[in-house]
Amino acid sequence: MFSYFTFVPNVSGSMRGKTMKKAITIALSFVLFGFITKPAFAQALPMAEASAHLPIPETVADARVTKLKAYLTLHNSPMADDAGHFIAEADRLGLDWKLVAAIAGVESTFGKHIPRNSYNGWGWGVFTGQNDGIHFDSWKDGITTVSEGLKYRYVDRGADTVEKMGSIYAASPTWSIKVRYFLTKIENFDPVGVEHLEVTI
C-alpha cells in the first residue's frame, strides 16, 4: 500500500522530518478542500428545493362578478357568462361596474330582445324610428364598445351622471329613471339568497 510515510528517501533526520511535515500538510489540504468546496449542483440544490415549495397565491373571486352573473342568470340573459367582462371594462375605464349592464336592462331586457345576430343589447347606434343599428361581433365586443363610448363621448364631455346621460342617450324622459332602477337592483341583489330560494322551492 502506498503511503507518504513509507516512501521517504534515505536522508538525514532533519530532512526526513521536513519531508513528513510537507506530506502531512498536503494530505490535510486535500481533506479540508474536499469539505469546504462543494460542486455547483450541490450548492444550488437547497435553492432549487426552496423554490419548488414557494406558496402559490390564490385567486380571489370578485364578488361583483358573482353578483352580476347571478343577477343576469336570474333574468335568463345571454350576457350572463360575460359578467366578468362588464367588470373588467368598467374598472379599466373608471365607470360604475353596474352601468353598462343596467343600460342593457332598459334597452333590451339584458340582451333578450335585440336585432337578429347583432349582439347589440344597448340600442347603440339605433336611432329613433329605426329597428336596427350597429352590429357587434360578440357580447364582449359590444360591452367594450359601449363602455368606451360612455367614457369618451359622455363622461369625459361632462355627462358624468345617469341623469345627464339620459337626455343624450335616449329620447325617452324616463330613460335615466329606468337605468337608475336597475343600478339599484343590481347593487342590492343577494346571489346567496337567490341560491337558497332555488334550493328550498
CATH-defined fold name of the largest domain: Lysozyme
Which sequence of SSEs, written as H and E, runs from N to C?
Answer: HHHHHHHHH
What is the second-level CATH architecture of the largest domain? Answer: Orthogonal Bundle
CATH class of the largest domain: Mainly Alpha
Report the strand count.
0
Percent in strands:
under 5%
DSSP summary: helix tally: 9
Question: Taking all residues together, what is the mean pLDDT?
Answer: 79
> Over the alpha carbons, how many angstroms does the gyration radius reach?
38 Å
Structural class: mainly alpha
Distance between the termini: 92 Å
> Uncertain runs with pLDDT below 50, 5 residues or more?
1-12, 30-45, 196-201
**Main sheet overview:** none
Described by the principal axes of the CA atoms, the overall outline is globular
- Total separate domains: 2
Helix content: 55-70%
Which descriptors would you attach to this protein?
Lysozyme, disordered C terminus, single chain, 201 residues
List the helices and strands and how they pair.
Layout: H1 13-36, H2 40-52, H3 63-74, H4 83-93, H5 99-108, H6 139-154, H7 162-169, H8 175-188, H9 191-200
Structure description:
The protein is mostly helical. It folds into two domains: 13-52; 63-200, Orthogonal Bundle (Lysozyme), CATH 1.10.530. It has helices at residues 13-36, 40-52, 63-74, 83-93, 99-108, 139-154, 162-169, 175-188, 191-200. Helix 3 crosses helix 4, helix 4 runs parallel beside helix 6 (139-154) and helix 5 (99-108) packs across helix 8 (175-188). It is globular and about 40 Å long. The model is unreliable at 1-12, 30-45 and 196-201 (pLDDT under 50).
